[in-house]
Write a structure and sequence with these properties.
126 residues, six-stranded mixed β-sheet, globular, 6 strands, Nuclear Transport Factor 2, Chain: A, single chain, 44% strand, alpha+beta
Length: 126
């Protein structure tokens, strides 16, 4: 089997987007590292969470899919820095906001996992 970091990271990102769209903490746990650092960098709404606290919030959230929201997400850039480190810039629109994500991934035990999620958001204007 050929190691293809770009394809593997893209697959992780699709699971990430799907997990957020469906508020599926089980799916998200498969893409997040157990030591996730979750940081909201939006001025006035700064927030720092660990994985368990974030998953508890996901479990309480009404899923954008259940509200009939259109799914809009995209990978803006993937930067691979060796066999075990990558960075992804992504954008997703849901819950009345456009989110800009800066994600750091590490490869551990033959799988890529998001270890940091730093993001900001702006209200959707369309």
């Amino acid at each position: 089997m050929t190691f293809s970091p770009l394809a593997e990271i893209s697959q992780v990102m699709q699971s990430y987007f799907t997990g957020l769209y469906h508020a599926d903490s089980n799916r998200l746990r498969r893409v997040f590292h157990p030591h996730l650092a979750y940081v909201c960098a939006t001025e006035g709404d700064e927030l720092y969470l660990d994985l368990e606290t974030y998953m508890a919030r996901i479990d309480k959230r009404e899923a954008p899919a259940d509200r009939g929201e259109e799914r809009r997400d995209e990978i803006l850039d993937i930067s691979i820095a060796g066999d075990r480190l990558a960075h992804v810039r992504a954008r997703m629109t849901m819950m009345g906001r456009t989110y800009h994500d800066e994600l750091t991934l590490i490869r551990q035990d033959m799988a890529w996992r998001i270890v940091t999620k730093v993001f900001s958001y702006i209200p959707r204007t369309d």
